[in-house]
């Protein structure tokens, strides 16, 4: 439906028109004064210092003792957000005082770099959820696990339990290097170009929690994958290392910068540079420092790296990176081949060591602590000790002997984790939404779960015809945490008219977005707004029309 957009190349990447001379808050140009409340808060006290206050003061004196600047700012650096107070309708989001929106409980994001967990770690997260988070758990589309209903009093114990198994929540949120996405099949996939795991480990060990990188202009998202499937959505990250074979130097990574969705979405651009595995951490550090120093801090809505990249263009960005930060030239390298197949690793697949991995799907990432505990036990029963999360909110169990595959598939299915989901279960994603998120305008998680079940009933007759996936991403507001703009059917939560003069929960529809071959943003079609209650009708009409009218092999995004 939408012409495919080629991933921009270095040469195609023109520097944007000259911007006004007024400072944008770039430290490197001398604009170091605090320019807005967020910048002031970060300058007043390094956000990483909040951990100590939580452990020594807030956890003992309770919620009411928390300094508002910590509560609504620095807590994020420890993976903590206040939940949305129950019962406040989405129509009021953005119009009321922050304290009215704050619940006395927290969302806690557990950082899972590379999506890599041992079964012991998975079980620990599940048990923490059972004890301290009312058995809630969501697998996020950035490979993290989020818990809800967490009390500040329990945080020291929760950290103790997490850290005892090598997990942490540091910089899971905030203006800092967030979780590092990694291929869920790193080190095991037969088609892997290069295993990025050592680079992910090195970055996490050296730089996460480093105070010199903990005050960035805005959040900073990293993806490192040597899979030819681009299974870390590299197009949408601030910095991505994408596996590619150099004709002379062998396997390594192509360096991309400046991707990001939200409002003003942009696809990452290639710098045309090839980086060997052992230099990834150094180059990552240099790009991160460049962003820290030259990133725009004056306006929050222009502070992501994508705005700097758009203004400078790839050539200038690479020049500054090489000359001011690396002190050497990077090698030129080829573009990786754009993948065509699925990226989600669902189902049963052979590993290169003769074992198998099993990828399973929950409904829109919603699981529970008990499900995670039982999934860890099921994996251990068949001899596995490794699991992975994916950017499609899936779970993978690695290292399964062939003789145990069926047992595992059946045990996971009993937990609601399917290795062979319907096309709708497979391709529907949802962000946190109004249940817990303070920015949300509409419900998303339960809406997605209901939609999946609705579509499985409505479209049972044509299920076998859906050979090309139709992705449906539900987002509770314009922030696009569940990647609104790159779905076939991207749904952006907003209040919409119901035809009888009322404003009710619904979605603005973006049609025909995609990644890879179909990389480009969905079009907002005038009049394509749907009220939440009629979502099933709407999607059914769209899908049937697509199947009726498509040419042989034509994808939805075409
Ligand atoms: Fe919250 Fe909006 Fe992100 Fe959904 S898209 S999690 S509603 S900020």
Task: Give structural notes.
The longest helix is centred in the middle third of the chain and has 22 residues, at 305-326. It contains 14 helices and 21 strands. It is 28% helix and 22% strand. Mean pLDDT is 93; it is low at 1-14. The strands form 4 sheets. It has a 6-stranded mixed sheet. It has 558 residues and is of the alpha+beta class. The protein is globular. The structure holds iron/sulfur cluster.
The kinds of small molecule bound in this structure are: iron/sulfur cluster
Structural class: alpha+beta
**C-alpha geometry:** globular
Number of helices: 14
What portion of residues belong to β-strands?
Answer: 15-25%
- The number of strands is 21
Region (Disordered): 1-48
Protein name: assimilatory sulfite reductase (ferredoxin)
Enzyme class: oxidoreductase
Domain Nitrite/sulphite reductase 4Fe-4S: 173-329, 426-558
Core attributes:
558 residues; binds iron/sulfur cluster; globular; 22% strand; alpha+beta; 5-stranded antiparallel sheet; disordered N terminus
Brief write-up:
This protein is of the alpha+beta class and 558 residues long. It has 14 helices and 21 strands.
Write the SSE topology:
Blueprint: H1 37-44, H2 50-61, H3 68-71, E1 80-84, H4 98-101, E2 102-110, E3 116-118, H5 119-132, E4 136-139, E5 145-150, H6 155-164, E6 177-182, H7 197-207, E7 220-225, E8 239-246, E9 250-257, E10 269-275, H8 280-294, H9 305-326, E11 331-332, E12 347-350, E13 356-361, E14 366-368, H10 369-381, E15 386-389, E16 394-400, H11 405-414, H12 423-427, E17 428-430, H13 445-458, E18 472-475, E19 489-497, E20 503-511, E21 523-531, H14 535-549
Parallel strand pairs: 6-7, 7-8, 17-18, 18-19
Antiparallel strand pairs: 1-2, 2-5, 3-15, 4-5, 4-14, 8-9, 9-10, 10-11, 12-13, 13-16, 15-16, 19-20, 20-21
The structure holds iron/sulfur cluster.
């Amino acid at each position: 439906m939408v012409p495919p957009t080629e991933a921009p190349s270095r040469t195609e990447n023109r520097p944007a028109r000259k911007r006004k001379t007024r400072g944008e808050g770039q430290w490197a140009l001398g604009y170091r004064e605090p320019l807005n409340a967020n910048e002031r808060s970060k300058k007043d006290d390094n956000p990483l210092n909040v951990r100590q206050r939580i452990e020594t003061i807030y956890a003992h004196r309770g919620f009411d003792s928390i300094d508002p600047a910590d509560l609504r700012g620095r807590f994020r650096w420890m993976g903590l957000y206040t939940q949305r107070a129950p019962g406040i309708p989405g129509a009021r989001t953005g119009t009321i005082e922050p304290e009215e929106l704050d619940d006395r409980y927290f969302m806690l994001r557990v950082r899972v770099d590379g999506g890599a967990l041992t079964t012991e770690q998975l079980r620990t997260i599940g048990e923490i959820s059972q004890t301290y988070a009312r058995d809630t758990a969501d697998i996020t589309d950035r490979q993290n696990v989020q818990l809800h209903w967490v009390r500040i009093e329990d945080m020291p114990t929760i950290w103790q339990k997490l850290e005892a198994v090598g997990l942490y929540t540091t910089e899971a949120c905030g203006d800092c290097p967030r979780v590092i996405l990694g291929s869920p099949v790193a080190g095991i996939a037969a088609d892997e170009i290069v295993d990025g795991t050592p680079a992910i480990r090195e970055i996490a060990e050296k730089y996460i929690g480093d105070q010199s990188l903990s005050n960035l202009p805005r959040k900073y998202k990293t993806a490192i994958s040597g899979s030819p499937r681009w299974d870390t959505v590299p197009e949408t990250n601030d910095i991505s290392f994408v596996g590619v074979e150099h004709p002379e130097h062998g396997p390594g990574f192509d360096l991309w910068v400046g991707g990001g969705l939200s409002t003003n979405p942009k696809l990452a651009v290639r710098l045309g540079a090839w980086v060997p595995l052992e230099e990834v951490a150094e180059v990552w550090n240099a790009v991160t420092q460049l962003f820290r120093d030259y990133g725009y801090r004056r306006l929050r809505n222009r502070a992501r790296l994508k705005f700097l990249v758009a203004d400078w263009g790839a050539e200038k960005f690479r020049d500054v990176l090489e000359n001011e930060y690396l002190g050497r030239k990077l090698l030129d390298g080829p573009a990786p081949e754009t993948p065509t197949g699925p990226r989600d690793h669902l189902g049963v697949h052979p590993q290169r060591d003769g074992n198998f991995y099993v990828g399973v799907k929950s409904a829109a990432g919603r699981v529970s602590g008990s499900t995670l505990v039982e999934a860890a036990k099921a994996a251990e029963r068949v001899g596995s000790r490794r699991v992975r999360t994916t950017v499609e909110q899936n779970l993978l169990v690695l290292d399964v002997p062939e003789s145990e595959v069926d047992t595992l598939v059946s045990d996971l299915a009993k937990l609601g984790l399917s290795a062979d989901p319907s096309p709708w279960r497979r391709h529907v994603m949802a962000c946190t939404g109004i249940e817990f998120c303070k920015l949300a305008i509409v419900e998303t998680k339960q809406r997605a779960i209901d939609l999946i079940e609705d579509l499985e009933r409505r479209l049972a007759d044509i299920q076998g015809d859906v050979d090309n996936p139709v992705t449906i991403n539900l987002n509770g507001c314009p922030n696009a945490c569940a990647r609104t703009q790159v779905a076939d059917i991207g749904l952006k939560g907003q209040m919409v008219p119901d035809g009888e003069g009322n404003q009710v929960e619904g979605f603005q529809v973006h049609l025909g977005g995609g990644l890879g071959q179909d990389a480009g943003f969905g079009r907002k079609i005038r009049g394509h707004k749907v009220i939440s209650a009629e979502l099933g009708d709407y999607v059914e009409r769209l899908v049937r029309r697509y199947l009726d009218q498509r040419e042989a092999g034509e994808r939805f995004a075409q």
